[in-house]
């Protein structure tokens, strides 16, 4: 058992990885036992233990006051569960055979711009280890907006180029302006290339990556379908 509410889970071969999010708060006089997560494991020497705050990493720039816990165990052995704890919650989870990706929205300029922070975790025989962090402009639709292929990560985002606003002089609302992109990032989550200016004024509604091809649907009255050749990253 790990504290918090269920976020997502994956099973790869005989290994299960599951993620929870535990909200927290601070009030004068509150005890650390009321804040720090608790992990229970029937195989461990100590059945129940509080996560030591010195072992908790954090996501810089996070606006979330919550813990993310990632637990991993093998269903066929009797080894204790491996748990990694982070301060700052993730929004979307994508998992390949070897890596788990956790995304988090980052808001800037009084919420007038936003980007996606991507955290990459290596999965190795039920153990989880953070490997890289990257960031791209915009926001993603869901887990299908991400895909790992031949060691690279492809990610499709909608970018707000001009936020929704109100003109106090004319008394009129200014429409939000958007564009769409597909990024390709290397194994260290550094940008290799991108496709820019897809369907300006629209938003991404669906994405599928299948091998060397990417499919992106944006929204208008009749939904445009873009087919991308991604054979050369």
Contiguous low-pLDDT stretches (5 residues minimum) are none
Shape: flat
Quote the average pLDDT. Answer: 89
The largest sheet is: 5 strands, mixed
Q: What letter string, H or E per element, gives the SSE order?
A: EEHEEEEEEEEEEEEEEEEEE
Rg, rounded, reads: 20 Å
Helical fraction equals under 10%
**Class based on secondary structure composition and strand pairing:** mainly beta
Strand-residue fraction? over 45%
* Strand count: 20
What is the first-to-last residue Cα distance?
41 Å
Helix run count: 1
- State the strand order across the main sheet: 1-2-6-7-5
Protein described:
2% of the residues lie in helices and 57% in strands. The longest helix is centred in the N-terminal third of the chain and has 4 residues, at 32-35. A hairpin with a 2-residue loop joins strand 1 (5-12) and strand 2 (15-23). The protein has one helix and 20 strands. It is mostly beta strands. The protein has one helix at residues 32-35; strands at 5-12, 15-23, 38-40, 48-50, 57-58, 66-74, 82-87, 92-95, 99-108, 113-124, 127-137, 146-149, 152-162, 165-167, 172-174, 177-185, 191-198, 204-210, 213-218, 225-229. It is flat.
């Amino acid at each position: 058992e790990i504290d918090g509410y269920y976020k997502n889970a994956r099973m790869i071969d005989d290994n299960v990885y599951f993620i929870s999010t535990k909200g927290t708060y601070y009030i004068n006089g509150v005890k650390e036992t009321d804040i720090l997560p608790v992990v229970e494991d029937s195989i461990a020497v100590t059945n129940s233990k509080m996560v030591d705050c010195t072992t908790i990493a954090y996501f810089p720039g996070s606006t979330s006051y919550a813990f993310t816990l990632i637990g991993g165990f093998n269903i066929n052995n009797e080894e204790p569960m491996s748990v990694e704890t982070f301060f700052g919650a993730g929004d979307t989870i994508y998992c390949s055979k070897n890596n788990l990706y956790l995304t988090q929205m980052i808001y800037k300029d009084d919420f007038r711009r936003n980007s996606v922070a991507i955290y990459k975790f290596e999965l190795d025989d039920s153990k989880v280890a953070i490997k890289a962090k990257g960031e791209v402009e915009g926001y993603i639709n869901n887990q299908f907006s991400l895909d790992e292929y031949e060691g690279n990560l492809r990610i499709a985002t909608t970018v707000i180029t001009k936020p929704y606003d109100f003109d106090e002089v004319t008394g009129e609302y200014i429409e939000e302006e958007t564009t769409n992109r597909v990024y390709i990032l290397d194994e260290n989550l550094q940008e290799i290339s991108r496709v820019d200016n897809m369907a300006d004024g629209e938003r991404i509604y669906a994405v599928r990556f299948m091998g060397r091809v990417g499919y992106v649907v944006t929204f208008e009255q009749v939904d445009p379908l873009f087919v991308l050749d991604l054979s050369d990253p």
